[in-house]
Amino acid sequence: MGQDIKLNFINRSSDTNNSSIVIFQQNAAVTFDEKPVAWRMIKNCGRGDNHPFTFPLNLQVMARDSWGNYTAPANAVGGQAFGMVLDTSGDVLTLLNVSAGSPNEVEVHNQLARGAINACILKDGKLLAVKTGLAPGEKASFQFNARIYIGVVGELDEGDVIHSAIASQVNTEIDLIGITSADVVMTGGGAGQNSTPFEFHLENINQ
Description:
This protein has 207 residues and is an all-beta fold. The chain has two domains: 113 residues; 84 residues, no CATH class. It is built from one helix and 16 strands.
């Protein structure tokens, strides 16, 4: 899958409101308005401060059954399909012998006789996407490009579902294809008439 991408958020803004920064991805495998998840939140990062983090290209898959049980995260690559099944120990998530519908997608199938599941995708151990209420016989498809969305938001925590009104305000899209490391620099902000919109751009790009 390639190596992890090393990123470093730098606050060069004029912000005096101690704004929180959200970073998320969009599931490219769906065409409807699926709500993204706050993958990373950067909080209390003052002016001149920086916040290094890693953007792995690898994904993990996990599922939650209707009993509130979570399966252990399993590494997943494009083209793989996983199924939630009932074995002699209980509900387990297993790699299926069939491929996903697309070589770029990871699928999660609910193969239980009863009970809805939540299909979860993790990146760097943090929740990246979730499909809730997956009924028996249904499947969820996930595909993520090397692209992040970043913006200033109000009260959000990592793992929170981002509602449409908030997500629509995050309009900075950063393409990470071919990049091994870079600084993600925030500028703008300020108080009163001198305030300007927040902007995000890459510097010190290594490929």
